[in-house]
Amino acid sequence: MYDNYDEDFFLEDTYYTVGMNGGTEFSKLLYDGKKSMFGKPQVAFVSEDSATKITINPSYHAYTIEHGGITRKEKETENGTSDNTGS
Q: Are the CB atoms for 29 and 13 separated by under 8 Å?
């Protein structure tokens, strides 16, 4: 069996609900990538309106719900809010 300990669990620009082992739940977050805080790996999320950034220590992460694989780009297209720059 092959174990990849560096496998990406989250997909960038995909919406998630993230639960913490203390009972706190954050909804409609976009995965923003991996970060390092004081040398320890963290996962970073940004709120749907980009007003709030959340960094989570994976040790406190209890569960994740992926929202149907909907990405930011798909949601913008659906809502007609795409930047239309062709990028």
A: no
